[in-house]
TrEMBL record:
This is Putative esterase. Coiled coil: none annotated. InterPro entries: AB_hydrolase_fold, Esterase-like, Mycobacterial_A85_antigen. Signal peptide: none annotated.
Amino acid sequence: MSEIRILRDFYSYPEETTRTLRIYTPDAYQAHPDRRFPVLYMMDGQNVFNHPESALYHTWCANTTMDRLIFEGRLQPWIIVGIDHLPDRFAEYVPWPEPAIGADGRGRLFADFLVNHLKPFVDQTYRTLGTPQWTAVMGASLGGLMSLVLGKTHPDVFGRIGAVSPSVMWAGSEIFRLWDRPTGRWCKIYLDAGTLERYWYYDIYLDYVESVASFHRHLKDIGLGDHELRFVLAEGHFHNEEAWQARLPDILPWLLEAGSNLHFSHFS
């Protein structure tokens, strides 16, 4: 059976605080001790898994979705590492300040933690495929924005980026300026938004439909190809975990598939 291990009080040296990690291993991890596995890192870890100790009733259900996709033969097994967010999520997942709500930007500290502390720990503790082609990062809202930041600033670490309902309008749309050219490395980038994701948050108008569509056009304009990008507009979806749970069974097979140049045999 697949398992979820919760690690509490995992220390983040860049942020000078402790974190909670939730690590899913698929059934194949226990069944095949000579096999190595790719890893998906997901933000807002307390909302990622269908588990009694998750924070919300409606979560992403990433564990049960992964189990089902593997059973149906639609996906090879991946390890999933859920990283709980800290109390000040607005600062944690953005490297730039947002004056409209008085949030500072400490996202680079989170990136330092993930790239230089957490990933080495996971690679040393678990049987992983540690190359960028087999390392993915995913989040929603500000977590989606941070996934795009990590994919651009650390393309030598993350080859697959899942930006679900990403807040690309945050901090004056700085993410457009960060993505000023392709990384020059192999990558896959998934983007989406729900058609009902349009509302005011304090003094910021959050129009995910137009903003994410615009960012998709921007990535194409700077040279990314259709084989690297996917943009989905989900009819009738709001900005919440229930919507992201509904989309996940279609996201994972595209984002995490082996692809024409990466064969399933690489997993063994």
